[in-house]
Structure formats: structure tokens, C-alpha cells
Specification:
The protein has 14 helices and 9 strands. By secondary structure, it is α/β, with parallel strands linked by helices. It folds into 2 domains: about 90 residues, Orthogonal Bundle (Arc Repressor Mutant, subunit A); about 250 residues, Vaccinia Virus protein VP39 (Rossmann fold), CATH 3.40.50.
Length: about 350
């Protein structure tokens, strides 16, 4: 008997096929809408709608200094997507309070316009990402399109702004009290410094040092600290996690970056040495459970897609190339942290988008 004979193809089920094609139509519409969201954010169309109230295309064009015919088509696309409301009788468009929170209010806990810059970076870098798939070498964070860095800050900042001081730090044993008295804090993989500055504003008796291996991001963070008048207590240095100097930190933080590291266990081992004996390592990671099945949900869909295009290629481009991925899950992350020599690890807090691990030597 020839065991190499391919099985006969199964005829598609018409109902399942129609349902899947319908889903694909929704996804194709969402993909095209993403570019329109980026355009509306960049041109200030959402902000003008939110601030000025209902208007027709000509009115929005006047508010934003754009061409009425193109704005009319953009508004039609937004209405068809359900991203803006359309009053057919009045011929006007408006943002509901809920839509404004997502597209126009940068301090909103559900502000999402920034993530569309991250999406744009994935499209722009796709040829280089494909080369990394073929070679297995991945693609380094520093090799990416600049809009990845700005988009990442804008995407994560609302979550940090509404959770970091309010619930994440209080979930750690004794950390808030140390920060109130005066502590030395390291923020590893700080990017443009959003998380560092949020903590610095909340705890004026403490000092903060942000570290990132990407010089351009460090420069942006320094400028942000200077604009806020915090340079006396906040500094930013160019260094990878394994290059952070041992200064006796009371708190070390890693916000959404441990899984991006090529050698996360090696980073954990080094960061343990820079902590005081009673210090704390806070590891904030994308929300995930421990299996693919548990992560097949809307949040997992986003994070797996980002991980395939950004996070895992970044890890593989570094030494060791562990490739944890953005959906590593708490068990795998705890194993990595313990491999670095930490004796106590616990899940301290979680939100729909993030989980917070507390590690102690």
C-alpha cells in the first residue's frame, strides 16, 4: 500500500465558506480603515470633530485646512466603519463621547490612535521582516521605521497613565512607601520615557534613571524630561538590560520589554545584581495565559500579530535569541525570572492588556 498518496480533497462546506468570506470582508474593511484612522489622526480630523462638534465635510475641511472633497470621502469611510456618527437628515458627522475617547482624547484610558502608527511600521518594514523570516536572524528594534517608536509610546502610555501609580505599584509589597520616602529606580527599556516620567511626577522624593539601548529613543526621553522640568531627578542613559550599572536600585522596572530581549534570563540574572537585597523587580508584560488555546481571543489576536511582526524578530536579532514572544504567558515568564536567580515571583496585578509580575531576590 502506498502510504504517500495524498488524501482526497474535502469539498468546502458552503455555509462555512460564506461565513469565512464574510469574516474576511470585515477584516479587509478593518485593514483599509486602519490607514484612514492614521490619516485622521495625523491631520487632526478626529480632534477637530471632538472639539468643534457636529459638522458637514466643508466645515471639517475649514477647521483642519484640508480639501473638502477628500474630507467628505474620509468621513463617509469613517461612518461606514462605525468610527463616526452620521446624521443623514442634517448631513453632519460627529464623534460620540465613546468614539472621542478612542480617537481624540490622548489622556483617555482607551485611547488607541497611537497603535495605528505601530501598524504602519509593520507594513513599511514588511520586506525587511520577510528577509528576517528567511534568514532566521529577525529584525532589530533599532532597524525599524521611526513610527514604531512613537506609536509604541502613544499606545502604551494611556495604560501606564491610568494603572501604574493607581494600581500596579500599590500591588507590590512595600514599594509605594519606599518611593514616597525616596528611592532609586531603574526603568529598563524605557523608550521615550513615558513610564519613567509618570513615576517621577508621582514620587517627587525619588530619583529615576531610564535605560534603553536605542540612542534615538534616549534622546527623545531626555527632551521630554527637560520639557517637564524633571531633569534634576530623572536621567536617561543608553544601555541594554545586561549593561545597566550596579547602583543599588530599590526598584527595577521592565515595561513591555522583557519578551523583546534576546537573552531575558541573562538580563534577569544581571538585574538581580543591580538591586538592593530588599529591592523589587516589576515586570509588566502583555496580557496572556499559558497556552495558545487560552490566547485565541481579540487581545491575543493583536498581540500575536504584533509579536510575529515586531517582538519575536527583535529578540532573534540579538544574542541568544530566546524569542519569548509577546504571548509567553505567566508560567514561562516566571521560569525565565527564576532562571535569573530570583527566588520569589508572583502575579501582582493584571488588566485586559497587561499583567504585572513582582520578583524579589
Amino acid at each position: 500500500m502506498d502510504t504517500n498518496i495524498a488524501p482526497a480533497p474535502t469539498a468546502p462546506d458552503p455555509e462555512r465558506l460564506n461565513a469565512f468570506v464574510g469574516r474576511m470582508l470585515g477584516d479587509i474593511g478593518a485593514a483599509f480603515s486602519a490607514a484612514n484612522v492614521l490619516l485622521g489622526d495625523r491631520l487632526g480630523l478626529y480632534r477637530a470633530l471632538a472639539e468643534g462638534g457636529p459638522t458637514d465635510p466643508a466645515g471639517l475641511a475649514r477647521r483642519t485646512g484640508t480639501a473638502e472633497r477628500l474630507v467628505r470621502e474620509w468621513l463617509a469611510a469613517q461612518a461606514a466603519a462605525g468610527y463616526v456618527d452620521y446624521d443623514a437628515q442634517a448631513g453632519t458627522f460627529a464623534l460620540s463621547p465613546e468614539q472621542a475617547m478612542v480617537f481624540a482624547a490622548e489622556d483617555s484610558p482607551v485611547y488607541m490612535a497611537g497603535v495605528f502608527e505601530v501598524m504602519a511600521s509593520a507594513w513599511r518594514d514588511e520586506p525587511k521582516i520577510a528577509d528576517g523570516f528567511r534568514s532566521g536572524r529577525g529584525l532589530g528594534w533599532h532597524e525599524r521605521n521611526r513610527c514604531l517608536f512613537c506609536g509604541t509610546e502613544r499606545f502604551f502610555r494611556p495604560s501606564y497613565q491610568h494603572n501604574l501609580v493607581q494600581s500596579w505599584l500599590p500591588a507590590l509589597d512595600g514599594v509605594v512607601e519606599k518611593l514616597q520616602r525616596g528611592a532609586l529606580v531603574a526603568d529598563i527599556g524605557c523608550g521615550h520615557g513615558a513610564s519613567t516620567l509618570i513615576m517621577a511626577r508621582a514620587f517627587p522624593n525619588s530619583r529615576f534613571i531610564g535605560f534603553d539601548y536605542h540612542p534615538a529613543s534616549v534622546a527623545e526621553a531626555r527632551e521630554a524630561a527637560a520639557r517637564e522640568g524633571l531633569s534634576d531627578r530623572v536621567s536617561f542613559e543608553t544601555a541594554a538590560a545586561k549593561g545597566v550599572p550596579a547602583q543599588g536600585f530599590d526598584l527595577v522596572c521592565c515595561f513591555d520589554c522583557l519578551h523583546d530581549m534576546g537573552d531575558p534570563a541573562g538580563a534577569a540574572a544581571h538585574l538581580r545584581t543591580v538591586l538592593k537585597p530588599d529591592g523589587t523587580w516589576m515586570v509588566v508584560e502583555p496580557m496572556a495565559r499559558d497556552s495558545l488555546t487560552e490566547n485565541i481571543n481579540p487581545v491575543g489576536r493583536i498581540y500575536y500579530a504584533a509579536s510575529a511582526m515586531i517582538c519575536t524578530p527583535a529578540s532573534l536579532a540579538q544574542e541568544v535569541g530566546a524569542g519569548l514572544g509577546a504571548q509567553a504567558g505567566p508560567k514561562r515568564l516566571e521560569a525565565v525570572i527564576r532562571e535569573g536567580g530570583f527566588g520569589r515571583v508572583r502575579l501582582a496585578a493584571e488588566t485586559p492588556f497587561n499583567m504585572v509580575l513582582e520578583a524579589r531576590p
